[in-house]
Design a protein that fits this description.
about 725 residues, Beta-lactamase, about 35% helix, about 25% strand, 29 strands, alpha+beta, outer membrane lipoprotein receptor (LolB), chain A, nine-stranded antiparallel beta sheet
Length: about 725
C-alpha cells in the first residue's frame, strides 16, 4: 500500500496546492513585508494550514469514494454535494450570466488528469454531458440533477501581489471540489462510453442485417441529448451520407404532434377532449347511429370509433381534399361496435387535424409550425412533406435498394403522417416529452395524452396518439411511423426522463416494431433498471429452496405419466438423474391398454443417445452431446452459464447459451416456461419435496403436438450406478 503522505502529495499536486505552498514559502521569506503585511500573512497562513489539514481528510474520503464510483455513481453524486457543504462552498441558485471565462473540458483535463486521453470526453456526444455536469455558461460548477451551482471565486491570481493570499484558500477549495467532480465524472463517462459503444454496435448490426440504407439515432436523458449517431446514406445514387441535419419523413409519428396540438388547444380553452367532433366539423357523420351520437375527440385519438382500420384508399391517388377524404372514409359501415375494438384509423387523425385548424383559425400545418416546431427549436422540421428536401426513400428488393417516392396520399392524410424532421430536431421533441411536457403543456393534458385507453394486444395499449407498454415495471410511451420508403420510431419513459428517436429511409423493419428497439436499448440507456441476470438466478435459487438444499440433492428418481394428447398414447415415465450431468429417461408407451414400445434416452455426462424397441436407435453427435450437457446439469439452477436477461409484464426471461429461454415468475421466482429449439414447456403445480420446489405438472408443445406430464413421485439421493447412464449394448 502506498504511504499515506505520498498519496496526499499526489492528490494535492493534482489540485494545484503545491503551487500555493511554494508561493506561501516565498512570501514568508520576504524581509520587506511590513508589520501589517506580516499580520495579514499570518492570518492567511493559518487559513492555509487549516485548509491543508482539511484537504488531507478530504483526499482520504476521495480515495474511498473513487473505489466505489463504478458501482455507486448516484452515491458519489450525493457525496459531492455533501463535500460542498463541508468545504463551506457557497451553494445557491444560478445567478445572471457574467463575463467570467468558461473553462474548457480540455483545460480541466490537462490541469487535473494529465496522461488520460482527453478526446474520450468529447466523443460519442458526451461533451455536452461533461459541460452540463461541471459548469454553467459562466464557468460555475453545476450539479444539474440538484439544480444548484457551486459558486467559484474566479479572481485572477497574481503570485507577486500580497493581497491575493486569501483567494488562495478559496481557489484551493474550489479546485478540490472540481477535482472530485472530475473524478466522479470519469467514472460516469466510463460507463456511458461502454454503453455508447454497445449502442453503436446494435445500430450498425441492425442497419446491416435489415438492409437499411441510412439511419439516425438520438438518445435523451435528464433533459440532455446524450447520444447522437448517424449512419449510411440519405441518397444512395449520389453517395450522400446521412447527417444530423438530414430530413426524414416520420410517417405516423406525426399523430403524436396532432394529439399534442389538440392538448395545447385544450389548455387555451379552445376545445375539450370530450367535445363531439361535429361541433367543429358538421360534415363528419358516422354510419353507425350509436357511434355518431357518442363519438368524442378522445375517441378519435384512441382508435376506438369502430371505423375499419386504415381505410385510406380514397386518399391514395392524391385527388381528394382533406375534407373530401374525411367525408368518404368516415361514412363507411363500421367494422366493430363503437368503443369495443382497437382499429387504427388515419381518417380520425386527419379529422382531428382539421379540428385543430378550425379552433385556431389557421391551417393544421401552420399550427404545428407555430405551436410546436418554433417553441421547441425545431427549425428544420416541416408539416408539409412537399416543403422538405428529405432523404430518398428506398425498398430492398433482395439484391439492391430501389428508390421510391412518398405516397401522394400524404396531403389528405397530413395530420396522420406528413411531418418530416431531422434527428437533431426530433431530439428536442423527445427532450420535452421525456421531461413530462413541463413548461410546454399542462400536467393534466400530458397525463391525458399518455394514459392507456384502448387495449391493442396482451402487452400494448393505446393512449392519445401514443402506444404504451411496460418495460421492467416502467411505463413506456412509444409510436412508430412507416410507409413505403419511410420508417421512424419515438419512445420515452417520463418516469426516468429518458427517450430516443430512430429515423430511417426505408420501409418499416423489425427495428421500428413497437417494443423491439426498446428491448435492445432500454437496458443500455437505463442500466440500473434493466433486469440483472445474476440477481434473477439468485432469486430462482432462493425460490427453489436455496443453494444449500439444492446442493444436498445429488441424485433423483422421478415416476410420472405422460399423455400424448393428439395420438391416443400414454407413457409410463421413469427418470433418473445424477450430478453433475447424467440422465436416463425410460418411456413405456401404451395405447388401447397395450404396450406398444419403449424409448430410452441416456447421457453419461459426456456421451449419449437413444434406444428403442422399434428400430429408431441413434447415437448423439457432438452438437447433441453439447446440448445434453447443458440440459442435463444437475441441479440445473446452479449451473446456468452466463445468461442475459430481459423482462415481460409478468416474467423475467433468461436467455441461455444454445438458444434456450427460461421464463421466471416475478411473483414467485419459479420457472413457468422453457422455450428451446422445437419445444415449448410450461410448468406449474410446484410442490416442496425435501426442501426443493418441484413442478408436478408440465405441458409440452413440440413436433409431436401437445403432451402433458403428471408427476407421481419424486425421491432425492437414491443410489444410482453409472451403468444406468450407459448404452445397454456396446
Amino acid at each position: 500500500m502506498p504511504d499515506r503522505r505520498e498519496v496526499d502529495a499526489d492528490l494535492m499536486r493534482a489540485a494545484g496546492l503545491e503551487h500555493d505552498r511554494d508561493q506561501r514559502s516565498a512570501r514568508r521569506g520576504d524581509d520587506r513585508l511590513d508589520v501589517r503585511d506580516r499580520a495579514t500573512a499570518t492570518v492567511a497562513d493559518a487559513e492555509l494550514d487549516r485548509t491543508d489539514a482539511h484537504e488531507r481528510r478530504v483526499d482520504g474520503l476521495l480515495l474511498a469514494e473513487l473505489a466505489l464510483a463504478d458501482r455507486e455513481v448516484a452515491l458519489a453524486d450525493a457525496f459531492a454535494l455533501e463535500l460542498a457543504r463541508q468545504l463551506r462552498v457557497d451553494v445557491r441558485a444560478p445567478r445572471e450570466k457574467d463575463d467570467t471565462a468558461r473553462p474548457t473540458v480540455e483545460a480541466l483535463h490537462e490541469e487535473h488528469r494529465p496522461g488520460l486521453p482527453a478526446d474520450e470526453l468529447v466523443q460519442k456526444g458526451l461533451v455536452g454531458l461533461v459541460h452540463a455536469l461541471l459548469h454553467d455558461e459562466s464557468g460555475r460548477l453545476v450539479d444539474e440533477d440538484e439544480r444548484v451551482v457551486f459558486v467559484e471565486h474566479c479572481e485572477m491570481h497574481d503570485p507577486h501581489r500580497k493581497h491575493d493570499r486569501a483567494s488562495f484558500v478559496q481557489r484551493s477549495m474550489s479546485r478540490s471540489l472540481r477535482l472530485l467532480a472530475l473524478c466522479l465524472l470519469f467514472a460516469r463517462v466510463g460507463h456511458a462510453q461502454e454503453h455508447a459503444q454497445e449502442i453503436d454496435r446494435i445500430l450498425e448490426q441492425q442497419v446491416r442485417e435489415l438492409h437499411i440504407p441510412g439511419a439516425a439515432l438520438a438518445i435523451v436523458k435528464d433533459d440532455r441529448v446524450v447520444y447522437v449517431k448517424t449512419i449510411g446514406l440519405r441518397d444512395v445514387e449520389h453517395n450522400l451520407a446521412v447527417s444530423e441535419e438530414t430530413i426524414f419523413p416520420i410517417g405516423s409519428c406525426t399523430k403524436a404532434f396532432t394529439s399534442m396540438a389538440i392538448a395545447l388547444s385544450a389548455d387555451r380553452g379552445l376545445l375539450s377532449l370530450d367535445d363531439h367532433p361535429q361541433k367543429y366539423l358538421p360534415y363528419l357523420k358516422l354510419a353507425d347511429p350509436d357511434a355518431n351520437a357518442r363519438i368524442t375527440i378522445r375517441d378519435m385519438l384512441s382508435h376506438r370509433t369502430g371505423l375499419p382500420a386504415k381505410n385510406d384508399l380514397a386518399a391514395e391517388p392524391g385527388v381528394l381534399t382533406r375534407e373530401e377524404y374525411i367525408r368518404a372514409a368516415t361514412s363507411v359501415t363500421p367494422a366493430a361496435p363503437f368503443g369495443t375494438q382497437f382499429l387504427y384509423s388515419n381518417a380520425m387523425f386527419a379529422a382531428a387535424g382539421e379540428i385543430v385548424a378550425k379552433v385556431n383559425h389557421d391551417t393544421w400545418e401552420h399550427v404545428i409550425a407555430r405551436d410546436i416546431f418554433k417553441p421547441l427549436a425545431m427549425p428544420s422540421s416541416v408539416a408539409d412533406l412537399r416543403d422538405a428536401k428529405h432523404a430518398t426513400g428506398y425498398v430492398w428488393d433482395g439484391k439492391a435498394w430501389q428508390a421510391v417516392a412518398p405516397s401522394p396520399s400524404m396531403q389528405a392524410l397530413a395530420p396522420a403522417g406528413s411531418i418530416a424532421s431531422s434527428v437533431r430536431d426530433m431530439a428536442q421533441w423527445v427532450r420535452m416529452l421525456a421531461n413530462g411536457g413541463r413548461g410546454f403543456v399542462s400536467e393534466k393534458m400530458f397525463r391525458e395524452l399518455t394514459t392507456p385507453l384502448m387495449k391493442v394486444n396482451d402487452t400494448t395499449s393505446y393512449a392519445l396518439g401514443w402506444a404504451t407498454y411496460d418495460w421492467n415495471g416502467l411505463h413506456v410511451v412509444e409510436h412508430n411511423g412507416g410507409s413505403t420508403g419511410i420508417s421512424a420510431l419515438v419512445a420515452f419513459i417520463p418516469e426516468r426522463r429518458v427517450g430516443f428517436v430512430f429515423l430511417a429511409n426505408t420501409s418499416p423493419t423489425a427495428m421500428t416494431k413497437i417494443g423491439n428497439a426498446g428491448q435492445m436499448l432500454w437496458p443500455l440507456i437505463l442500466p440500473d433498471d434493466a433486469p440483472n441476470a445474476s440477481r434473477i438466478v439468485a432469486r430462482m435459487i432462493e425460490a427453489a429452496g436455496g443453494e444449500t438444499a439444492l446442493r444436498a440433492h445429488t441424485s433423483v428418481e422421478i415416476h410420472a405419466l405422460k399423455n400424448y394428447e393428439e395420438h391416443g398414447v400414454l407413457s409410463e415415465m421413469t427418470i433418473h438423474a445424477k450430478a453433475p450431468a447424467s440422465r436416463n429417461e425410460l418411456d413405456i408407451l401404451k395405447a388401447v391398454n397395450r404396450e406398444i414400445g419403449r424409448v430410452r434416452v441416456y447421457f453419461d455426462g459426456a456421451h449419449g443417445g437413444q434406444e428403442t424397441t422399434f428400430g429408431q436407435d441413434s447415437i448423439n453427435d457432438d452438437a447433441a452431446n453439447a446440448k445434453a450437457r447443458r440440459d442435463d446439469t444437475f441441479p440445473c439452477l446452479l449451473d446456468l452459464g452466463k445468461p442475459t436477461a430481459h423482462a415481460t409484464d409478468d416474467a423475467w426471461v433468461l436467455d441461455l447459451e444454445g438458444g434456450t429461454h427460461l421464463f421466471v415468475s416475478k411473483q414467485t421466482g419459479l420457472i413457468t416456461k422453457r422455450e428451446s429449439e422445437g419445444e415449448v414447456a410450461t410448468f406449474d403445480d410446484y410442490r416442496n419435496v425435501d426442501g426443493e420446489m418441484v413442478p408436478f405438472h408440465t405441458t409440452i408443445h413440440d413436433g409431436l403436438g401437445t403432451s402433458t406430464i403428471f408427476v407421481q413421485s419424486v425421491k432425492f439421493n437414491v443410489p444410482i450406478g453409472e451403468a444406468m447412464f450407459k448404452p445397454t449394448s456396446p
